[in-house]
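In line with agreed milestones, the collection of sequences with tokenised folds has grown. One record among many is set out beneath this paragraph:
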Amino acid sequence: MPSGKGILFGKASLFLLAAFILFQIEQAVAPTLSKSEAVSEKNPPPAEKPVEKPPEVSAESAEKATVIAEFASAAAQNLQLKTNVGWAFGGKSQQGWQIYEPLIRETIKAETDAGSAEFAAALSERQKSLGLSPSGILDESTFRLFISNWQLRRLKQRTPAAAEELAAGAPTDFYDPGRAPELRQIEHETYAAYKKMVVAAAADKSLNLKTNSDGTLASGERFLKIVSSYRSKDYQNQLRAASPNSGRAALAVNFSPHFTGRALDVYVGGEPVSTEDQNRLAQVNTPVYKWLVKNAAQFGFRPYFYEPWHWEYVGVN
């Protein structure tokens, strides 16, 4: 029979053996777990893709899309009419209204060209204000109404200027500096307003006008120089005799606003005062003419729609 010491020794040995085996097992398992964890960190499971929301449509974009859908047909018709619609003015047959597009766009406050749905939409609003059918189509009847309104905004005064009402224009302000002194006369207020307008135009760097240090137009600059100002009735008759085919639209028969000294022909490009369609079309597309259309009224000048170069001083108010 074993003694008490032997029994204790035997139990201790078994305990030590068990501890040793458990230690060995932990050592064998630990590297496997570490390796698995390393692999998991190196190749994490793919993250779930967030669900993409459809892009939000702004109110402005939605409104534009509505305008395009509503006025696409009108825009297509305007694109045809701008060169094809027939009408007459000053005893001459006319074709289309593309020469007057800058004036039309300013009238209806349209920022885009005549073949756009936005132009048709702006035209529709203008037609509505005039009591017309708001079709957005610039047909002959609408265009004639525009002409009537433009003509009504012109100079009303018909009294020829008296000598004391006229100022002598500086040769450097004229397209032809050698023009005779009697042909360089301008009504006082008109001349002052013209000078202010020219300084404002010269300050607009987008026009690239050649200027002097004081902001006036340089002698070598032609744009906005005065081609013609005050005319006597005798001189008007001489012009008509020299251009018998000019028609009433170009050279008035009985009365010309130039008699008042308040009408100025200014250079806007091309042949200075040629009424040929191609010349006028080139003129209305110059930056200077477009600037006048947008800004001349601030200085009291209104256009004669048929002649891009002709502007009349009616006063700011």
In short: The first strand starts at residue 86 and ends at 89. The chain has a mean pLDDT of 86. The chain has two domains: 62-152, 163-313. The chain has nine helices and eight strands.
